[in-house]
Each structure stands twice: as C-alpha cells, then as structure tokens.
C-alpha cells in the first residue's frame, strides 16, 4: 500500500468514522467495541484496509460496481480535465461528454435511441416508473398505470423502488408503499414453485406473468420491470425459453418492457448488457453501477424512439413533455468517466476476458460442488456467479444464514472479499455471490475459489 497514513492519522480517521459516519447496510452496535473497517486504497483487483491488510476484491467494490478495477489514472484524468473545463450545467442543456457518451452508449444498444441522465440506479428506475405513469395519463386516461415486478428482483432504495422490489426483508418496515405495483413469480428453477408439474419451466414461469396480467386486467398494466439476471435475490439466471415468452406476452398486451441493468450492464455478463444474452428488445433500460466503474456518479435511463416520441407528439400542450429533472444528472464528471470506462473495456478486450474468466469461475465452483455437499446449485453468467448453499441436497433445505455469513467472514480473514445474499428473501439468504472486476486473471479466480474451498471446509466440516 502506497502512501500509508501514520498510526495517529489512522486512529483519528477510525474515531471520526465511528463518531460521525452512518454506514450503509450495517448495524452499528458492534462498533461500540470493535473498529469499523476503513478501506484506504485500491489498485487493480485489490484493496487495503486501515491495518494495511490486502484483500482480493471478488465483488467489485462490495456492490458490483468497479468493473474495470481500481486506480485507473486515465479515468481520473478524464474527470479532472472535464471538471476544469465545465463541471456542471443543468440537464435542460447539453454538454460535450453527455452528447458523446450517449452516442457511444447507443452504438452498443441497437434499437435504443435516447439517453436520460441521472445519478443512481434507484433514480433511473424512478424515472422509468414516472414515464409509464405519464404515458398512462396521456394515452389511456390514467388506466394503464400498473407496473409489474418479479419476486426476488430488486430495483432500488426509494419508496417507489421498494414498492417494485421482490425482496421482503429489504422492504420490511418501510411501508406503506406506492400503489399500483404488482408482483409476479420468480424464475429460479432450482426453487420451482410447488404448482409447477413439469415441462419447460422457463415457459411455465413466464406464463405465470400472463396469469397475473389477466387477473389484473391487461388494460390496467403499463409495464413489466425485470432484471436480466436477478442479482441480490440470489444470482438467478433465467431458464431456457423464459425471455422469449416474456417478450411475446408484453407484445400481446401492449406492455412496455423495462429491463433493469443496474448490476448486469456494461460488461458484467460478458456482453454489453445482460438482456443481449437472450435476444430481448426492451422499451426502456436502466443502468448505473458499471457505467463509470464508480469513478463518478452516473446513471442512465435509455429508451426507444417510440417511447421518446410519446412525450413530444403535441407541442401545444404545456403538460405534454417529461416534466422531470435530476440535479446531478447535469454533472459532467459522470459521462466523462463513462466514456473512458467504455474505451478501457473495448481496448483491453474485457468482454472476452469476462467470458473466459466467467467460464473458469463456473468450472471452479462446479468442482467445489463435487467436493462440498453443502453446495446445492451453481449458476451465473460471465463474471456474475452464485453458489447456493443447502443443509441437504435431497430436501434442498437452505443452509443456516449464520453459517453462510461465516463463510464470507472466513474468506475475509483469508484476504478475499466475497458476497452473499443478506436481508433479502426470508429463509433464502443462502447464496454466495461473486462479481470480480472484468480485469480478473486466472490466478485471481483460483485464489477466490480456493478461499471458498477452505472456508466451506472450516464452517461446514
């Protein structure tokens, strides 16, 4: 670790953090007797904490964000140069990096046409929900306003995003929720619903969406919001036939298809966007985390030209346009960082690397499953992989959540940071999650799975 702070400086930082910082997703009671963890520096795939301990980061910043790794000077320079020239102007006007990145981004998204800038995944999804509601008022007398979401999917932290969230423990204690959001069943074949009696599970799971639409009334449903691969709900890859049937259903009932790419977007699954693995043609796509690899805050809502045209078909109506603003969507650092981030992915062939290293990780996890009976299912796409832990393979009873977290803790002690589903779906927070940066090497992948191997042996025997 370069430029390490001295012991007095570190002690001051730790105490300032303990006294004043409210951390995300953390119970602070233990900090009364133990120090909070401070991450001091990152380079490539590795980070160092306040004690100087090195960790291999297998979750890209903890929440699937740092796709091109830490310490990228070229991104920092691109941001610096842009901030000196122009740091901000409201999104009612354009900017050079905003225009250029939109062009570059849409080149990777055939069929999509417009980019709306904002500053977080939650906000991007809120924008999409607002568009659906406004279209309902403009075109359908307000009736076609309902938004369907899927059990186990997650779309953000705001009240409306939680209203569209299929993770009960994340939603708990934050109601009452925004009306008009309706849940459809998940598509995890390993946890197939009790009423599934056989056949093609992917088509069956998609048909459950149609049943919900018919129950609610097709003339009341405006959009369906789905992750291409469910992330925090257990790294759920869609079964064969699922997405084809979903798209058929949306077309049949004139329902907008909104794909939430906040996690999968910009290379995570080995293609630019997760939906491109499945031949899907969405109406709206939201993205955030990997767009600039965490070097600047940026999120985007991307739409087709057809959706865009719905907001400019009557210029004489002063209420007809999308009356929305995102203050920090006008920051130029985000698109400047995103342009350089995308250049790095292209020039370093990181999509190809993601496919190759993802194949290696899946192979290693399957090998671990042969060795450790506690691994019930392995699933993933590219460098987005999961291993579901069970108490019994015969019954598929989920492993004890405390033991799952103990595996995460053991890996941390070994200097490898992995993730796990946590406070998401009651009784099913039992999936280990892996999402290393797209720059991962074979040695990195092997170090990650070797740590898991040792941890499983110690925790489960």
From TrEMBL:
SUPFAM superfamilies according to UniProt: PLP-dependent transferases
Membrane-crossing residue ranges in chain numbering: none
Keyword terms: Aminotransferase, Pyridoxal phosphate, Pyruvate, Transferase
PROSITE patterns reported for this sequence: AA_TRANSFER_CLASS_3
Similarity field: Belongs to the class-III pyridoxal-phosphate-dependent aminotransferase family.
UniProt GO molecular function: pyridoxal phosphate binding; transaminase activity
Domain of life of the native organism: Bacteria
Cofactor(s) the protein requires to work: pyridoxal 5'-phosphate
Protein name: Taurine--pyruvate aminotransferase
A family per Pfam: Aminotran_3
InterPro entries: Aminotrans_3, Aminotrans_3_PPA_site, PyrdxlP-dep_Trfase, PyrdxlP-dep_Trfase_major, PyrdxlP-dep_Trfase_small
Protein source organism: Pseudaestuariivita atlantica
